[in-house]
Design goal:
The protein is an alpha/beta fold. It folds into 4 domains: 80 residues, no CATH class; 163 residues, P-loop containing nucleotide triphosphate hydrolases (Rossmann fold); 61 residues, Helicase, Ruva Protein, domain 3, CATH 1.10.8; 62 residues, Arc Repressor Mutant, subunit A. It contains 16 helices and 12 strands. The protein is elongated and about 85 Å long. The termini are far apart.
Length: 429
Amino acid sequence: MDVAEKTMAATTARTVWLILSALNMISSLIFHPRPQAACPIFFKSRANPRLLQKTAICRVFRGLRGIFVLAKAWEFVPNIGMDRNTQLVGQSSSFLDAVERASRAAPLDRPVLVIGERGTGKELIAERLHHLSSRWDGPLVTMNCAALPETLIEAELFGHESGAFTGATKARVGRFEEADGGTLFLDELATLSQAAQERLLRVVEYGEVTRIGASRPMQVDVRIVAATNEDLPRLADQNRFRADLLDRLSFEVVTLPPLRHRSSDIPVLADHFARRMALELEWPTWPGFSSSALNRLLSYDWPGNVRELRNVVERAVYRCDDPSRPVDIVQFDPFESPWRPQSRSNGPQTRATQPEPEMSNAEAVAAAASHDPMSCADFRLAVAEYEKAILAAALDKCRWNQRAAAAALALSYDQLRHAMKRHQLMGAN
């Protein structure tokens, strides 16, 4: 790959390079001038003819996996290459194993279940299954089963005839008919009602759809990809999901790992989303994250997975005031504020239930100055009191200007705020 890297390094900025292998697949998308930051995606070139409509083949060379063609795309389809929402990014073995399993199942005309927590990329896997299948030129219809009430879900899935029920003034095509010849992606599958599950079972089994109010079924050719964040076998044991439908849909099950088990992917994903945001903000360069910010990203649990990471990273980049310095302040909770409304669900708080008021600045300085660490037998308490004394002294010296105190202590503003909150130094001056 040295020949390819040297050729790409000599080109101008924002040139898009496609590396085409002998397997007729695009194995990489590389955006100059940082080819090492490219994220691997896999689209069959024959499945996306527009992708190669204007390219110039610059070099043909041999690699470990066969003959490769280095081509420069003069007109690239932006919704495939630059859209930050349509790329699978990661390098951890658990993530790559899941993507590889989806890629192997894609050419087979069988149902696939995608299991994963919220924000793990289930819809991206469904798109991959569609684009790498023989149905690539057919429609990809997406439906969130949790977005519609139970009374409308069947009409939305299977369609209805005119006059089938009150308000049905004209016939409506269902999602199965819309996806004929393509793929139907059913998100939040576990929320389907028992009646909808029964009708879905017949479609999977016989390929027949009967509109509500119709007397004759119609044949449809649809591949079903379903996703959920529930434990479907457990729901089937509890009779909350049809076991026979689960048997039909689980030809292949792709389980996506949560981000907390993909720690090696967090810096890659953070850099990926940050570069996209910096490009959107028209920054001249991307300075990267500071070591403290990156450590905070690595130590966070990420209950919202990749979706939450993207929001946190993009928020941190756009709030950064100096594009020439590494991003240092990362806020995980966007609702964090001293003026955040208090919960009133349990009625007004009494004096006994109110939280203990934080001490004032003068009280904090006096308490920290009077504390003797040598008189404490508890090591952790002694360290905490000593840290509190340092914070209080720095704040008092800077007249409680928090940004000045953070700079004096070589801390970020966010780190200082967390330390002040931990030691109850957030009171009014």
